[in-house]
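A.,

Following up on our hallway conversation. Structure tokens first:
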């Protein structure tokens, strides 16, 4: 079990238990001395009272110490376990990782091309069929660098592909892991696109970091496809020093074994009802239909405007430790009122059985409410990606509770609206039942009116604002929006009539003015590339 601690310095607070224990011991000693000096009753009653006082103080201080420990553990940010968290995605983004080490100069590709030439041609063919997909380019050798940031301008990528060479980077060795790590960093943190990484390589590496980088990509919900180039039979190639000859081949078996070992460790998929997160795959570039297999991994995300992906997330236990701290702190006050010396084992077991239902009932409703509260908090913190994930989990987990489901759907739709995903927001608003609570229905009709108004459907917007006012007739904003929608509906009708009467010469003048405006705001992007050379005395014997 992998345990993560966000703030390990919090454990220093446990040292406060030492002075607390010493103070309690001092206080107990003084209290015991005072009682001995003032007791005039029989020795049996005195002994019973001392025993009761001792048990009460010991148990109370132990419970408070446990409460403090739980509070410290909560602040430390302890988390363990993993779960697949739903994250909304729209569109696709791909990072091309090119292995430009000297082993890619081996001429064992089809038509006597080098592996790097074959990878360049393969990538150009893929680019021609990736309309609407953002692409970045990462170069991997001894290090990894982002050569082209994420862009939809494929024309800026092709000139770089034509110049790929091991001499573009002076770093020695071959590190596919560092290239994959840079590809992960090329995607924006809050990106709404489904991210994928395509690695063009022969599988040769000198640092063995590829496995860890692939696991990191899976953790962030990024699929990785490794595209192999070269022959399985070994061939000779010069290393970076120009004199050392090394043997190299396509290490497809090594790549497949690495993928299998990583997939075997991803047990969180089994714990989340078989939900598939990101995927790992290997494709031999010489296989028939390999390019179609690669392109099919993004075709669904490019065609679907809105879909849900799943990312691995460690489960935070802060809430658990806070609840335990509160429980133990309350119990520390309660136990002081009991005479523990009179309790029998049978009575303790009976009391424990009576408390069991408190910990076993209404778990599903509690989870649904918890996700809605977390989503609402993230929504107000403008963390819309996390809020969407929380509300999605609340919707999936509240299928048996219609009350919580309506609130979860409303929160999810509102979060989509804040991300300008109007269609996805509208579809969620339409799923809210007509018998939902009045507060939910009012806000639903109000927001649907906002969406219609943004689209220019003023008549539809006015009807939604009317429905909202039928629920809450005292809302001033709904009244104002209703009047504005009615007014703009009439103005749009009048403008449509005027447009029909526009003379042809005026229409031409208007069009020429529009073209002039658009010609002013055109821009040309230029990119410059610099290669920094490392000192010549660096050893290049392992650069292959």
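Then the amino acids I'd put at each of the 544 positions:
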């Amino acid at each position: 079990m992998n345990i993560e601690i966000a703030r390990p310095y919090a454990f220093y607070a446990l040292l406060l238990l030492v002075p607390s224990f010493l103070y309690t011991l001092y206080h107990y000693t003084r209290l015991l001395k005072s009682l001995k000096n003032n007791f005039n009753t029989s020795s049996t009653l005195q002994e019973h009272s001392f025993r009761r006082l001792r048990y009460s103080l010991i148990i109370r201080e132990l419970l408070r110490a446990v409460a403090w420990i739980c509070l410290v553990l909560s602040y430390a940010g302890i988390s363990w376990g993993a779960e697949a968290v739903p994250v909304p995605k729209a569109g696709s983004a791909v990072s091309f990782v090119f292995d430009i080490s000297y082993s890619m100069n081996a001429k064992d590709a089809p038509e006597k091309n080098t592996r790097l030439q074959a990878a360049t041609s393969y990538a150009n063919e893929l680019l021609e069929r990736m309309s609407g997909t953002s692409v970045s380019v990462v170069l991997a050798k001894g290090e990894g660098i982002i050569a082209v940031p994420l862009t939809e301008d494929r024309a800026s990528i092709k000139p770089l592909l034509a110049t790929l060479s091991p001499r573009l980077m002076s770093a020695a060795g071959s590190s596919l892991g560092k290239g994959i790590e840079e590809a992960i960093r090329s995607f924006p943190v809050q990106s709404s696109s489904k991210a994928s990484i395509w690695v063009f390589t022969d599988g040769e590496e000198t640092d063995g970091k590829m496995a860890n980088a692939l696991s990191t990509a899976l953790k962030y919900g990024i699929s990785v496809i490794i595209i192999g180039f070269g022959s399985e039979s070994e061939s000779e190639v010069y290393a970076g020093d120009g004199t050392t000859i090394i043997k190299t081949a396509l290490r497809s078996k090594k790549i497949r074994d690495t993928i299998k070992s990583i997939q075997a460790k991803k047990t969180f998929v089994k714990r989340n009802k078989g939900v598939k997160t990101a995927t790992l795959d290997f494709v031999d570039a010489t296989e028939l239909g390999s390019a179609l297999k690669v392109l099919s991994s993004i075709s669904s995300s490019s065609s679907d405007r809105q879909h849900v992906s799943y990312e691995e997330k460690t489960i935070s236990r802060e809430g658990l430790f806070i609840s335990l701290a509160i429980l133990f702190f309350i119990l520390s006050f309660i136990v002081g009122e009991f005479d523990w010396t009179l309790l029998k084992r049978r009575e303790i077991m009976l009391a424990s059985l009576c408390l069991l239902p408190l910990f076993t009932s209404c778990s599903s409703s509690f989870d649904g409410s918890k996700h809605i509260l977390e989503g609402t908090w993230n929504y107000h913190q403008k963390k819309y990606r996390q809020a969407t994930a929380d509300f999605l989990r609340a919707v999936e987990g509240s299928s048996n509770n219609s009350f919580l489901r309506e609130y979860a759907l409303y929160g999810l739709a509102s979060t989509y609206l804040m991300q300008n995903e109007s269609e996805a927001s509208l579809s969620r608003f339409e799923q809210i039942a007509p018998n939902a609570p009045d507060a939910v229905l009012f806000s639903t009709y109000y927001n649907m009116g906002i969406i219609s108004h943004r689209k220019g459907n003023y008549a539809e917007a006015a009807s939604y604002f009317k429905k909202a006012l039928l629920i809450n007739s005292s809302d001033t904003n709904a009244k104002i929006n209703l009047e504005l929608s009615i007014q703009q509906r009439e103005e749009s009708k009048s403008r449509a009539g005027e447009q029909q009467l526009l003379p042809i010469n005026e229409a031409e003048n208007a069009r020429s003015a529009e073209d002039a405006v658009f010609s002013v705001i055109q821009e040309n992007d230029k990119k410059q590339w610099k290669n920094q050379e490392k000192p010549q005395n660096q050893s290049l014997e392992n650069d292959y």
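The chain is about 55% helix and 15% strand. Curious whether your intuition agrees with the design.

B.
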